[in-house]
Amino acid sequence: MKRKPPDPKEIAQRQALKALSKAKRAADQAGVKLSHWEDEFIGSVSERVKKYGRAFGDPEKGGPGTALSIMQAVKLKEIVAKAKGETKPMRRKAPPKRSARDINDD
């Protein structure tokens, strides 16, 4: 008897719920106090993923097979980094742009 192939939407839903619970658990274990907004974010997003299978309605905000929008995924990564005690990495400054005159002088 052949098994049917796994549903990508169901896989994305399970992964999103696992990532949300993992972020909450990591913050609790590290003793990091999440802000009221971050705590509410995790709760409301997990509710929407459980109820609807994804946490956003606008298809332009994320891929068709994903459960979290791009910005929700970014915020989730920030919460995990906060729980781990990581600081935001410093942005490297881009080298100054060279004009055509500078290039011709070389």
Describe the structure.
- The chain has 106 residues and is mainly alpha-helical.
- The chain has one domain.
- It contains four helices and no strands.
Brief descriptors of the model:
106 residues; mainly alpha; extended; 0% strand; single chain
| Rg over C-alpha atoms, rounded to the nearest angstrom | 20 Å
Number of domains: 1
Helix content estimate: 55-70%
Q: Please report the total strand number as a whole number.
A: 0
Helix-strand category: mainly alpha
Could you spell the SSE succession in H and E letters? HHHH
Q: For the report, how would you describe the main beta sheet?
A: none
Beta-strand percent range: under 5%
Low-confidence stretches: none
Q: Helical element count?
A: 4
**What characteristic shape results from the CA principal axes?**
extended
Distance between the termini: 71 Å
User: Mean pLDDT, rounded to whole units?
Assistant: 85
